[in-house]
Amino acid sequence: MMKARISEIFLSIQGEGVYVGEEQIFIRFYGCNLNGCRFCDTQLYSFREYNSLELSEYLTTRFNDVYSISLTGGEPLVQKDFLKEFLPSIKRNFKIYLETNATLPTALEEIIDYIDVIAMDFKLPSSTGLGNFWLKHKEFLRIALQREVFVKVVICKDTELIDVKKAIELLSDYKYNITFILQPNSFEIDRSLMVKIQDFQKYSLGFISDVRLIPQMHKLVGIR
Ligand code: SF4
Predict the structure, then answer these.
(1) What is the spatial distance between Cα 212 and Cα 209, in angstroms, rounded to a whole number?
(2) pLDDT tens-place values along the chain, 224 residues long
(3) Is the pTM higher than 0.70?
(4) How many angstroms is it from 169 CA to the middle of ligand 1?
(5) Which atom of ligand 1 is nearest to the CA of 36?
(6) 61 C-alpha to center of ligand 1: Å?
(7) Which residue owns the Cα nearest ligand 1 atom 3?
(8) Which residues, judged by CB distance below 6 Å to any ligand atom, belong to the binding site of ligand 1?
(9) Which residue in 44, 118, 177, 181 has the fewest CB atoms around it within 10 Å?
(10) Residue with CA nearest ligand 1 atom 7
(11) Could you tell me the distance, in angstroms and rounded to a whole number, from the CA of residue 26 to the centre of ligand 1?
(12) 32 CA to middle of ligand 1, Å?
């Protein structure tokens, strides 16, 4: 039986994106294939191993009145072989919400049947300080559109309009009604960053009908 490396499991509210405020069980998978976004707030140093039976028993006994599970990280898709074994065993009891950096399209394809909602990031080079992942994101989005999906970008003081334009271009290759979320980097929130994001929002609304500015709510209200 496959084993997963999991850093933590906890109950909280979803703090990002269109499901903000929803109660979820968070399963934080250890490890990330990017491991270096400048704004990363989830540096993980330890994990516990679970096989799928142990994990599904833990969830159903500890959280039997909770409806939604968030697979988060790190990058959950790094452990897709475990997810392939684990998700079928819990799918009928929970809504499965995947938070992902959207750079592992082949892994997504292998587990998409068990996912209900995909919260995918576009990693903007001027935000992350890394290279660009546009081709991966494009392929990922093509597959993700089989499910409910929205796209989020983190906006930092260094974020450049050219990257926002590229994100819009990529979204417009498919359809315009995908929700596009501009999330301020929580470490840098101040008036100038918010003005910058409002400018990006105004620009994006010229091309996409649903563009929202949503900060990380859990941090604003001081919960996990
Ligand atoms: S993809 Fe996510 S978990 Fe990985 S380094 Fe970037 S912000 Fe951190």
Answers:
(1) 10
(2) 899 999 999 999 999 999 999 999 999 999 999 988 999 988 888 999 999 999 999 998 999 789 999 999 999 999 999 999 999 999 888 999 999 999 999 999 999 999 999 999 999 999 999 999 999 999 999 999 999 999 999 999 999 999 999 999 999 887 658 999 999 999 999 999 999 999 999 999 999 999 999 999 998 888 88
(3) yes
(4) 23
(5) 5
(6) 30
(7) 74
(8) 32, 34-37, 40, 42, 73-75, 101
(9) 177
(10) 40
(11) 16
(12) 6
**Separation CA 47–CA 29 (nearest Å):** 8
Residue with tokens 């919400």: 97
Cα of 34 from ligand 1 centre, angstroms: 6
Residue 111, Cα to own-chain centre: how many angstroms?
15
CA of 80 to the centre of ligand 1 (A): 17
CATH hierarchy code of domain 3-220: 3.20.20.70
